[in-house]
Every structure is written in C-alpha cells, then in structure tokens.
Amino acid sequence: MFSKLFAESGLSLDRLKSLLEVGAAGSIVKAAAGDPVRQSQFSRQIKELEDFFRIKLIERQGKGTRLTPGGKELARISRFFMLGLSNFQRGSLAEEQTFRIGASATFIRHFLLPVLSPSQKPGASYATEIVGDDEIERRLHDLTLDFGIVGNRALSRPLQTKALGKWKLGLWVPKALRLEEDAARRSFQEMRLPLVLARKELHGLADSALAKYPAHLVCDNFLEAAAALKQQEMAALLPDYLTAEGGSTSFTQVRIPKIGSLTFHFHLAWNPRLLRLNPHATRRRDLLARLLTQRLAG
C-alpha cells in the first residue's frame, strides 16, 4: 500500500519536523534563531523534501521565506500525523495532556482562569494564549490550538462552534467629569467625550460604529480600558460582564442606543480533526463548554 512512498530516500520525521518549524517561525532564518548551522540544516532538509515530492515547499518573500500552498498542505498533513503519534506516546506513558486554548485577554482573565481549576481538570493541563479571532481560526485549522473562543460562529469548514453566551457594551462615564447623562450622551455622539477604546477586542464588533471616533487613548483590551477608566479622567466602553470598579458611586452608565442595541456572542470553537486524533479532547470540549456556559450565565 505504501511501497511507492518508501521506494526512495528523502522522507523522514526529522525532515517533516523541520518543515513544521520553518512554517511556524515564518522563515528559515527565524526558525534557526541565528544559528548558521541550524539554518543550513533546515535548508538542506527542506530541499530533500522538495526533491522527494518534486514540488516547491518554500518560496522567497521579501528578505525571508514562506511556505508555498504545497508546503502549507504538507505541513498540515505532517502536523496531523505527528499529533497522532504524540497523543499515542502520551497515552502509552500515561502522561498528562495539555490543551491549548486561544482567547482574548479579557476572556481569559474573567472567564477561563476561574474554570480551569485543578478540581475541574483531572488528568489534563491547559495553556492559554491571547489570540484574536482571525489567528484563532487559522491556528485551529493548523492544529496549533486545540480550542478557541471567538465572536463569530460562522468559521470556515471544517471548524465547528458551540454558543457559550452573549453580552452587550455599555458606556461608563466618570462622575469627576461633571456631566449629566444627557450631556455625556450628546458629548459622545458629537465625538467630544474623552474616551479610551479597546481597539483589538472591539475589532469586528462595534468598531464600525467607532471607527472615526478620535479616542484619547487606544489600548489592546477591555482590562486595560477598565484600568484607564479608574483614573476618572476618561470614559470607557466596557462589556456588561466587566462593570466599572466603583460602580454608581464613581461612574455613570450612559445609554447609547446605537451601541446598546448590539448583542455580541462568545463561541467555543474547535477542529473536528482534533477529536478524531485525540478522543480525550471530546471530554475536554464538553467540560469547557459546560463550565463556561455556566459562568457566562452567572
């Protein structure tokens, strides 16, 4: 069945591993971390793979290199194969498994960390990574993430999702700015209100409604926006699950119909290929979905 595959030399796990490392790093130079010997080894091993498959696997891009479409496909197949071997090895050695979860910084801090307690995860460990929706989707396809938390449920096939819960945005205005609610709303609509925006976590959500707003401060996530709000010099848009510290005594929540009418969602996402490679992942997915759904509802 596989006689032709092994009829000539050039194919090996070590060479395929080198292809994966170069693909993950983005170039041979980065994968070699400045080591000229390693760089030469990567170049030689990938050239041997190209000779074996008779196809270009890498190509130049500016001063670096990138995987060709054929290289990306071989990397995907190799990763799938090696993950299967790795899971078999861990099972044979009865080693604890680590599941990689990508999500926003705020979701990790507010929802993931509380549910990833030792009492909830016998026989497994977790590694969290701060990742945006687009990168989560790509890495789920590549199987470099096991699970992801995304806002968009319509991911490209074969990725699948499960709804966890929904949330809304609210505008919090420090009382130190001495603005009544109507005045604060008018100031916001006229783009005069000093505002901190969590651009990365708003991207793809309410960013179209805020694209032209001249924010006084732009930060990465809602946690940073909430910290800036505590200084009581700027207003902030925060999700309803992350209320302003100090509440109504220090801040006023101002209703903005254009934004308040929007509803956002969290979805747990995964690649079904992972479940075929690792049956334990199905139990982890179901446990994560149950615990996160409960926390979002509570």
**Can you say what the CATH homologous superfamily of the largest domain is?**
Periplasmic binding protein-like II
Order of helices and strands: HHHEEHEHEHEEEHEHHEHEHEHEHH
Number of strands: 12
Instruction: Tell me the strand order in the biggest sheet.
Output: 4-3-5-12-6
Beta-strand percent range: 15-25%
| Tally of discrete structural domains | 3
Global geometry: elongated
- Mean pLDDT, as a whole number? 89
Radius of gyration: 24 Å
**Number of H- or I-type helical stretches:** 14
Helix/strand-derived class? alpha/beta
Distance from N terminus to C terminus (CA atoms, Å) equals 55 Å
Low-confidence stretches: none
Look at the structure and give the CATH class of the largest domain.
Alpha Beta
Question: Biggest β-sheet: count, sense, barrel?
Answer: 5 strands, mixed
Residues in helix, %: 40-55%
CATH fold descriptor of the largest domain? D-Maltodextrin-Binding Protein, domain 2
The appropriate CATH architecture of the largest domain is 3-Layer(aba) Sandwich
Short overview:
With 298 residues, the chain is an alpha/beta fold. The protein has 14 helices and 12 strands.
Write the layout of secondary structure elements.
Layout lengths: L12 H13 L2 H5 L3 H18 L4 E4 L2 E4 L1 H25 L3 E7 L1 H11 L8 E7 L2 H10 L4 E4 L9 E8 L1 E6 L6 H9 L5 E4 H4 L4 H4 L6 E3 L2 H8 L5 E5 L7 H4 E4 L2 H4 L3 E7 L1 H6 L2 H18 L1
Parallel strand pairs: 3-4, 3-5, 8-9, 8-10
Antiparallel strand pairs: 1-2, 5-12, 6-12, 7-10, 7-11
Helix pairs in contact: 1-3, 1-4
